[in-house]
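Protocol step 4 of 5: obtain the predicted structure for the target chain.
Materials: sequence only (see below). No template structures provided, no constraints applied. The aim of this step is simply to have a reference model before the mutagenesis design in step 5. Sequence pasted as it appears in the construct record:
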Amino acid sequence: MSDQKKKSTEVMEKRLLELKIVRHMIEIYCHGHHGTKARELCTDCEDLVKYAETRVEQCPHMEEKTFCSMCKTHCYAPTYREKIRQVMRYSGPRMLWRHPIMTIRHLLLERGILK
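Step 4 output (structure tokens):
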């Protein structure tokens, strides 16, 4: 596989992982705050997921960054940035219990221990 193709595959995998983590975090938040069933989202949280998907898909820094929280450019609009902050503050500690492997991997990637 060429270096360019390998790099492109790695970037796509990073995008998918980031989207998966964000979706899980929003699901946890929605269940805890809006009383939805597991894996279901209210209209507002579904809107936040779609917004996050759009931002991640358009991210020009995906090659060099690990996660949005570590990015030098904050591309979320202020209202969405505050919503996602609330989601992460609530869901972050709960992720360890619901998705332990994903959470540990995320922490290792964030700290540069994994690549």
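Step 4 remarks: The chain has a mean pLDDT of 87. The CA atoms of residues 108 and 114 lie 6 Å apart.
Proceed to step 5.
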